[in-house]
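Standup notes, structure subgroup. Blocker cleared on the zinc ion input:
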Amino acid sequence: MNTLEEYTELLARIDRINSAVSLLQWDQRTKIPRDGHAGRAETLGTLSRMAFELATSDRLGALLDELRGRDGLSPVEQASLRVVGRDYARHKAIPPDLFERFTVARVRSESAWELAKEASDFPSFSPHLSEMIDFARQFAELFGYEDAPYDALLEEYEPGMTARTLRSIIEPLREALVPLLRHLIDDGTPPETSFLEGCFDVSAQRQLAARALQAIGYDFRAGRLDDTTHPFTIGIGPGDTRVTNRYHEDLVLSGLFSALHEGGHALYDQGIPDELRPLGIADGSSYGVHESQSRLWENMVGRSLPFWRHFRAAMVDVFPALDGCSAEEFYAATNTAQPSLIRVEADEVTYNLHIMLRFELEQALLSGDLAVDDAPDAWREGIRDTLGVEPTCDADGVLQDVHWSAGMFAYFPSYMLGNLYAAQLYATARRENQDLESSIEQGDPRVLLGWLRERIHRHGQIFDPVELIERVTGEAPSPVHFIDYLTEKYSAVYGL
Ligand code: ZN
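Run returned:
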């Protein structure tokens, strides 16, 4: 076996172990009986450790070194060395005993957060948050960075992105979003949504979600749809990418849009070639690019008039009581803007403002400019200044997201970048495909899906996010397209 064969065989072995891990995780979050959790956690621990040991093995390090010095590698093989080598270096940067301590502390921190959130009791969580911040600082130093420690953490989710670039994107975005929101609320007429109030049978909603997945081109021969409490999409292995969803009787749009969101993630996964698996680059380019695919189908498509001209029939078929509603009414009702406290329930206009607050606060926490005990007040102030609403309890404020409790700092910007990338990609797709919107109106997702397959999906992790976006759209990531898209859509819906 030559070096390259040994390298791909080792990566394929890791990929197959991870495939088993994914299947067990899917089961853990959908079907497992209550008493099965403890045993499952043990099995998952063992398998994950096996994959981790291979991914950090000296043998992999030696193979990477040998291959790096070699001429004549294809661009795809070079991309593999870049991505696998980067992960390897990051894993190796953390001493095993430090990582072990972090893993134990994280479990404690997450359960403390859960209890603290339930009781809206920040002081009981604050020592754990301090501990997680301290780990993050140590990791940033070990990973290394050029400009700011934050960049070292950001690299995990958005390779190549920096806090400085993020700020240059966020400033113009904030300057556009805050007045747009004011203008809509002060001068606009909010769309009618009362026809969507009431009780909507859950099994009918489940059918509707399946039809939504079909409408965007999700391949049910290579996946399935199941119930869960927190919707997620998971790639199990070749030919198997699963979507999960949840339904609320009184919120019919919530289940529909989370299905479209997860479906967007799943389409990306289904479009990545299996040949990239043994090269270790069969994933999305970044968290932000992955999120761009979910947001694109959920928002640019799912909340558009062409989509509703087609999908109205499915809606009425499943819920005959809605027969009196036009496509225009459904479309308008899916595009409302309202300042609110909770990020995951926020609309397209306000969502990124929630992210900006978290971005500012986590930077200040990591740098020490903000003391942990002052975080709840800083949160209240921040959300009041940007959105004009104020939480009455920390459960709706600084305690609302799980991320910091799990040591995930610098994760939030990926959500925002996902929205911006989605708008930038969709603008390019429209420019390059004159028939894009008419095809969506006819219920045919193939023009858009084919374009995404060709320009984004088939590359897996061959390109880092900034390079990928530049190659596809001809410019660096920018907030301009998102601002244009929102202004145009919401001005029309609000009659401005
Ligand atoms: Zn998502």
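Discussed briefly. DSSP finds 20 helices and three strands in the chain.
Next: hand off to the docking folks.
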